[in-house]
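Entry 14. Ran structure prediction on the chain below.
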Amino acid sequence: MTIKAKILITDDDHLVREAVVKILQMFGYEVEAASSGEEALDLLRADFDAIILDINMPGMDGFETMAAIKEKDYGIPVLFLTGAGSMEYAVKAINLGAYDFISKPIEDLDLFNVKIHRAVEKRMYVQQERVYKEKLEIEVRNKTRELAEKNVLLEEYSNSLEVSAVNTITTLQVALEEKDQYTAGHTTRVTEYSSLIAKAMQVSSDDLAVLQRACRMHDIGKLVIDNSCIRKPGPLTDEEWQLVRKHPEIGQNIIKPLGFLGREGEIVRHHHERLDGKGYPDGISGDDICHLTRIITVADSFDAMTSKRSYKTNMSRQEGIDELRRCVGTQFDPGVVKVFAEVLSKSKQTRVEAL
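Output, structure tokens:
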């Protein structure tokens, strides 16, 4: 059985109030009506899904009533009912936090229903978010209590969660790559190349850890990109290319809920940026691109150049280095390319050679 959404309508005009009630009921809503702001507050409960509120009322006007409603912190969307002559009031109401406004008399019933439906949907999302946060808070408290009872340091527990989260994301990315013979091993190679560069450039151990985590999840955004685009043997259409270009931003959004991966998320987002500002998704340039992002950009591009792909023949190692050097200053950081060329020449007997 479908539960009807509950609407509270408040208007001091009896005719307007009754007309709105009938319209709402016609659209299948459960309705309660109040003739004043004071009465609305008496009727107000957390189970309302939307509130329709007149602005000009004796006693408590709409603005005062809304302020009192907000103090309840129920998160119920408020739609102001306003006459054509008081449009400025509606704008003021929205600036104060109202969800929307409805002009009276109500002439377009479909538009009216759409606005109410959207408000009810917003209410549903607010409730879902609150329930999620409450459950999350309960879970965190329970886990913290369990750890305290077992005399285990909270930091150790946090670290284990971080490792688990990173491993899960990495597993997803590797699984994505393994579905395509051309991209299998890409993440491993990019991580290895980036680590060699970072160590040669003597980055700190903390930065190295951040870089390695970012490498392991830099293409996670491709999970939601149609494989037909990624594996297409020929050139992409403009529409397909625009879709593929979204994967860095999508990747950051995927890991954003994991707050401890903030720096990694920025690297994932920007690993296709260029020094000259012609990269994507943000078109940042120069010093706005952090040193770790510059490293992964070189490593990722080199592996793409020297690995077989469905849409191109692969370059040799030397051809890949030559291409990096050709794009120094526009696409790639000169210092990073110089170091990478040096470490590659010294690592012919290392694991990278085997890759």
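The chain has two domains: 6-124, 156-354. Will compare against last week's run tomorrow.
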